[in-house]
Amino acid sequence: MTEQELIDYCKHCVATDNYISFEDDLFETITDEQAKLIASMFAPDTLMLLPNYEINFFEWLKRADYEVWHDLWGDESAP
After folding, report:
1. Contacts of 7 by beta carbon, 8 Å cutoff, 6+ apart
2. pTM of the model
3. What is the rounded distance in angstroms from the CA atom of residue 8 to the CA atom of residue 21?
């Protein structure tokens, strides 16, 4: 995927979903330069989802050891 296609894809995601999400195979192919470009093109508060394997891990962690998961993700008031 070219840089312009990647930026267009991200713009489309934000316009339709209000966040950026990549399929695992696309996520794995993004270079450091492309990641920096994406970061520079969008507002600092633009949400980008974790890759599916990371989401699956944290869902498993929540079931397997809720206290650890809660320490990482459960307290929204924590800094």
Report:
1. 37, 38, 41
2. 0.75
3. 13
- Which amino acid would we find at residue 74? G
The amino acid sitting at 42 is F
Question: How many other C-beta atoms lie within 10 A of the C-beta of residue 50?
Answer: 13
16-38: per-residue pLDDT in tens?
999 999 998 898 899 999 999 99
Rg (CA), the chain: 15
Contacts by residues 21-26 (CB-CB < 8 Å, ≥ 24 positions apart): 21/48, 21/49, 22/49, 22/51, 23/52, 24/51, 24/52, 24/53, 26/1
Axis-axis angle for helices 3-17, 32-41 (nearest 10): 40
